[in-house]
Design goal:
about 0% strand, ABC transporter involved in vitamin B12 uptake, BtuC, disordered C terminus, about 350 residues, two-stranded antiparallel ribbon, mainly alpha
C-alpha cells in the first residue's frame, strides 16, 4: 500500500529551489565582497534573461511531448533580422520588432506542421528547419556582422534591455511576466491541460477528442513567439547583428527546461520549474566564474547539468506513473495525525 510521505513530496517539489538558495549562500560565504551584492544580483538577472526566455519557449513543446531544437537558430535569425530591418532597411524599430515576433510565430507553426503532417520526429524536423534558419541568417548577413552607423540604434530600442525598474534590470520583469503568463496557460486554462494530455498519452488524447496535431502546432507556434521576443531582446543587448551568437543559448535553454520538469511539478514541464532551474544555472555559472574557473568550465557545467536534468526528468516521470498506478490500485493512507470522521459528520 502506498504511504503518504510529506518529506518525499516536499523534497521532490522544492528540493531544487532549496539547492538554489544553498548555492547562493555557499558562493556568498566564499566571495563575500562580490557575490552577495546588489550589482552582482542585477548582473545575474540581466545576463540570464535571454536564456530564461528561451528555456520558457522550449518548455511549451516539451509539455506536448515534443522538442524544438531550432530555438537556438531561431534566436540568431530573429536578432539578426531585427538589426537588418532597423539598420539596413530603415524600418522603425517598433515595426521591426513586431515583424520579427510575428515571423517567429509563423516559423514555429511551420515547425509544427512539418512534425505533425510530414510525420517527422521533432528532433530531426527542428534540427533540419534550424539548419535552414542558420543558412538564411548567413545569407542575410553574408557571414559578417551588422553594425549600426555612427548615430547608433534608437535609445528607446536599446532601452528594452538597458532600462531599469524598481532598481532592477527591466529584462528580469520580462521573464517574470512570461513565467506568469505561461503558468496560467499551462496550469489554469484548458489549453494547457490539453497539451499535457497530448504529451503524456497521445492515444488517450485522441480517444477523448483532442485534436492532437492542431495542439502540437500551437505548441511550436508558442515556442516561436517566445523565441522572437528573445531575439528582439538579444538585439537590444548586443546592439550588433552576430550571425553565430544564437547557438550559445541552445544548450542552457534545454538544460533549464528539462531540469525544470523535475521540480515544482515533478514529471512534467512547467513554467515555475523552468524559472527555478535557470536560477540554479545562473547562480552556479556566476559563482564558478567569480572563483576564476577556466573557460571550459561553462560548457562542462552545462553539459553535466543537461545529463543530470534528463536523468532526473525521466526518473520523475517514471515515479509519477508508478505513484499514479499505485494510487489507482490502493487509495493512499491518511497522513499521520488525521482523525477519523465523527459520527455526527456522517450523512
Amino acid at each position: 500500500m502506498t504511504r503518504w510521505s510529506p518529506r518525499g513530496h516536499i523534497v521532490g517539489n522544492y528540493g531544487l529551489p532549496a539547492l538554489t538558495a544553498l548555492l547562493f549562500l555557499l558562493f556568498s560565504v566564499a566571495l563575500p565582497d562580490t557575490f552577495p551584492t546588489r550589482d552582482n544580483v542585477s548582473s545575474i538577472l540581466s545576463n540570464q534573461s535571454i536564456t530564461a526566455l528561451l528555456a520558457l519557449g522550449a518548455t511549451i513543446p516539451i509539455a506536448a511531448g515534443k522538442f524544438d531544437l531550432s530555438i537556438g537558430y531561431g534566436l540568431g535569425l530573429a536578432h539578426v533580422l531585427v538589426m537588418y530591418l532597423i539598420v539596413d532597411g530603415g524600418t522603425p524599430w517598433p515595426l521591426a520588432c513586431l515583424a520579427v515576433v510575428g515571423g517567429g510565430v509563423l516559423v514555429g507553426a511551420l515547425n509544427g506542421v512539418v512534425v505533425e503532417f510530414a510525420r517527422i520526429d521533432s528532433f530531426i524536423a527542428t534540427l533540419g528547419t534550424g539548419s535552414i534558419m542558420y543558412a538564411f541568417t548567413g545569407w542575410l548577413t553574408d557571414g559578417s556582422r551588422i553594425v549600426p552607423g555612427p548615430d547608433g540604434l534608437p535609445a528607446a530600442f536599446t532601452g528594452l534591455y538597458d532600462a531599469r525598474f524598481l532598481g532592477l534590470p527591466v529584462p528580469a520583469f520580462y521573464v517574470l511576466g512570461a513565467v506568469v503568463v505561461l503558468w496560467v496557460v499551462l496550469e489554469r486554462l484548458p489549453f494547457g491541460r490539453y497539451l499535457y494530455v497530448v504529451g503524456s498519452n497521445p492515444r488517450a488524447a485522441g480517444i477523448i477528442g483532442i485534436p492532437i496535431r492542431r495542439y502540437s502546432v500551437y505548441a511550436f507556434a508558442g515556442s516561436g513567439l517566445v523565441v522572437g521576443i528573445a531575439g528582439v531582446l538579444l538585439a537590444a543587448q548586443q546592439q550588433i547583428g552576430n550571425p553565430s551568437v544564437g547557438l550559445d543559448y541552445l544548450l542552457p535553454a534545454f538544460v533549464g527546461a528539462l531540469l525544470g520538469s523535475t521540480t515544482i511539478k515533478p514529471g512534467r514541464a512547467n513554467a515555475l520549474g523552468t524559472l527555478v532551474a535557470v536560477g540554479v544555472l545562473a547562480v552556479g555559472l556566476a559563482g564558478i566564474g567569480q572563483l576564476g574557473a577556466q573557460f571550459w568550465a561553462t560548457p562542462l557545467f552545462n553539459g553535466g547539468t543537461l545529463l543530470l536534468a534528463v536523468g532526473l526528468a525521466g526518473y520523475a516521470a517514471r515515479r509519477r506513473l508508478r505513484t499514479r498506478a499505485a494510487t489507482d490500485t490502493h487509495p493512499p493512507e491518511e497522513p499521520p495525525g488525521a482523525s477519523a470522521p465523527r459520527a455526527a459528520d456522517a450523512p
